[in-house]
Amino acid sequence: MSAAENQELKQVLHEHELKATSQRIALLKLLEGTQEHFDAEEIYLELRERQKNVSRATVYRSLEALVDQAMVSKLDFGDGRMRYERSKGEDEHHDHLICEQCGKVIEFFNLEMEAQQLAVCEEHDFTPSTHTMHIFGTCSDCSSLTK
Ligand SMILES: [Zn+2]
Ligand SMILES: [Zn+2]
Ligand SMILES: [Zn+2]
């Protein structure tokens, strides 16, 4: 990790009034650098590989603190494991396809779909703040296995 990147993450944490502990930085760094949607236990294991002295309790607590500050998003894919990903800006919004066989998560963005959702809100005179779209099913790898 470069010193400049480190400094930038410290600054971000500071803006969110969180102490820039090395664990929090490592956590953000991990989530920023992956397309995976890890659960808390997976994050803990990943961090432990990179750094010694990582405690499970601290990782879980740090995650919740980052979720509270909306720096990290918590996703419920309905299988009893909460996943985490780095919160993205408005312009980086995406939705998810989730394979029920292997757990693979595919991110997608579809402008038409987004526009339709806004149209629905408008119809109901509803002001949306945020949404998450999860489509469950079987990925191409898994469906080719059963053919
Ligand atoms: Zn969306
Ligand atoms: Zn699959
Ligand atoms: Zn995602």
What's the quick description here?
The protein is an alpha+beta fold and 147 residues long. Helices cover 46% and strands 17% of the residues. It is built from six helices and six strands.
What can you see in these coordinates?
- The protein has 147 residues and is of the alpha+beta class.
- The protein has 2 domains: 1-87, Arc Repressor Mutant, subunit A (Orthogonal Bundle), CATH 1.10.10.10; 88-147, Ferric-uptake regulator, C-terminal dimerisarion domain (Dna Ligase, domain 1, 2-Layer Sandwich), CATH 3.30.1490.190.
- Helix content is 46%, strand content 17%.
- The protein is built from 6 helices and 6 strands.
- Bound molecules: zinc ion (ZN) (3 copies).
- One zinc ion binds next to loops.
Main attributes?
147 residues; alpha+beta; Arc Repressor Mutant, subunit A; Dna Ligase, domain 1; 3-stranded mixed sheet; 6 helices; 6 strands; binds zinc ion
Structural class by secondary-structure content: alpha+beta
Sequence stretches where pLDDT stays below 50 over 5 or more residues? none
**Mind telling me the C-alpha Rg?**
18 Å
Q: Widest sheet: strand order?
A: 1-3-2
- Using the coordinates shown, work out and report the CATH topology of the largest domain: Arc Repressor Mutant, subunit A
Distance between the termini: 45 Å
Extended strand count: 6
How many strands, what sense, and barrel or not for the largest sheet? 3 strands, antiparallel
